[in-house]
Every structure is written in C-alpha cells, then in structure tokens.
Amino acid sequence: MHYQPQRDLLQNRIILVTGASDGIGREAALTYARYGASVILVGRNEDKLRAVAQQIQQEGGLASQWFILDLLTCTPEACQQLAQKISIHYPRLDGVLHNAGLLGDVVPMDQQKIDVWQDVMQVNVNGTFMLTQALLPLLLKSDSGSLVFTSSSVGQQGRAHWGAYAVSKFATEGMMQVLAEEYQGQLRVNCINPGGTRTGMRANAFPTEDPQKLKTPADIMPLYLWLMGDDSRRKTGTTFDAQPGRKPGISQ
Ligand code: NDP
Bridge partners of 239? Predict the structure, then answer.
C-alpha cells in the first residue's frame, strides 16, 4: 500500500494493541506511538511488554501503559476488570487493534487435537470477543473510533491443514461484519489480513521458508496506520489486505 501519513496522524488518539509484545503487534504499537498516539499495550508477558513500553519512551513517544491479559485463560470478568483499570487512566479508546493470535497445529482435520483446537478458538475468537465486549463502552466514547481485527488469507478461503486457525479466522471475519452493522455510524469495524509476514508465528507455520523473502512487520504498517487514522474514516465492514496481490502460501 502506498500511503504517506501525516506525522501527527494519531495525535490525541488513544490506541490499544493486543499481542503488543512481539511480531506485528509490537511493530504496530511502536508505529502508532511514532505517529503521536498514546498506546496501551496488552499481552501475557510482562517483561516483553515493559521492553516495548521502554522502547516507545526511548524514541520520544508518549508514555505507554501495559496490562496483562492472557486470552487463553481470560474470563468475561477479567476483561471487564481490565476495561475498568483502563478507564481509570484513560477517558476513552480511539482505536483497538486485536492482533494477538495463536496458530495451533498445521495438520489435516482428522489429526487436529481437540485441546489445541479449543485453545485456538479461545485465543482467536472467544477471548477476543470477551475483550471486545468489555472495551466497547470506551470505544463508543470516541468521536472517531476504529476497531480492527486481524484475519488471514485462510480466513477468506479455506486451505488444507489450516484447521482450527482457518476456522477461527473465518469467525473473526464474521465477528467484524456483525459488529460493523450493529455500530454503523458510531464505530467503524474492519479486518486486516497481514499476508505472509516475517514473524515467529510465520516461521512456525512454514519452517522451511526463507524468512528473507517475506515482508517485515514494518513493511506492512502503512495499512495499520491508515485504518487507525481519519484518512479511512468512512470505511467499515471490510477486510483489507496489507499485501494486496500477494499469492497466499509459501514464498518461493
Ligand atoms: P507472533 O506469534 O509473532 O505474535 C503473536 C502475539 O500474540 C504475541 O504478542 C503473543 O504474545 C500474543 N499472544 C499469543 N497468545 C496469546 C495469549 N494467549 N494471550 C495474549 N497474547 C497472546 O504472531 P504474528 O505477529 O505473526 O501475528 C499477529 C497476528 O497476525 C495474528 O493474529 C496472526 O494470526 C495474524 N497473521 C499473521 C501472519 C504472518 O504471516 N505473520 C499472516 C496472517 C495473519 P507473546 O509475546 O507472549 O508470545
């Protein structure tokens, strides 16, 4: 995507990122801070989140706070408590990037282990839904809120062996579409499909692939910025590809 955002694109915006400790989420958190946002980091690993907050500060960004939430074990009550804690420090949320995700096993359907299947659904769908429910009141306080989910190519077209992960991403697309209709005119809701990107998850999914052939998280940030800022103000109910035209599957 060719997009040259204004340096102050996200000034006065408060943006929460899940899975902010690593990979694409870490890069998104750093990038949002560079464009002026006050960033709230959510994840399950305190040391990694603290390191991201420190980097934001070292780069001259606004001080960011981090909060621990393990999507694998979270309950609706834990999500409500998190929203409550956030509301003590912040008046509203202008953006939420649901980025945290779990891959599970890349094996045929008849070999998908039910406990791994349930973990993938819990992190990618159920936990993400519970957190969304808890954060909606804060998002609705913004006059230009943007709620962004993270999908995948296998969330739009099923592919052999992608099992629970693919099914969870179809569910993510559905959740986005339902919410986009329900909050039409109040909150925009979209998905990003990052496309193959050089992260730990990608290396686990394609261990034989040469990572150098992949875009880095930094390369795909233009779309992440565009969807959080006012340049995409009227867009809702859509899945956007961060790498349009890229053929899904292993990079040759
Ligand atoms: P990584 O594995 O590099 O990072 C995943 C992030 O999610 C980490 O911050 C991780 O935390 C966090 N996370 C995982 N499980 C939990 C949990 N139970 N509770 C809270 N946080 C959790 O993945 P990517 O950066 O590659 O992926 C980011 C998103 O993009 C995912 O939704 C993925 O499905 C999607 N995606 C990625 C593609 C790619 O090629 N990379 C392609 C298509 C979609 P921790 O640091 O503690 O492990």
Answer: 191
pLDDT digits (tens, 9 = 90+) for 30-52: 999 999 999 999 999 999 999 99
Q: What is the mean pLDDT of residues 87-109?
A: 98
- 14-241: CATH topology is Rossmann fold (3.40.50)
Torsion region of 142: left, alpha or beta (phi above 0 gives left; psi -120 to 50 gives alpha) = beta
Q: Which atom of ligand 1 is nearest to the CA of 70?
A: 19
Domain edges within the chain: 14-241
Catalytic residues: 165
| Pairing of the two strands 146-150 and 38-43 | unpaired
ipTM of the complex: 0.99
| Residue-wise pLDDT tens digits, 200-213 | 999 999 999 999 99
Q: Measured between alpha carbons, how far is 63 from 53 in angstroms, rounded to an integer? A: 7
For residue 81, give Cα distances in angstroms to 29, 78, 100, 139, 231: 22, 5, 19, 16, 33
Measured in Å, residue 185 CA sits from the centre of ligand 1 at 30
Please, is 208 exposed, middle or buried when counting C-beta atoms within 10 Å of its C-beta (0-12, 13-18, 19+)?
A: exposed
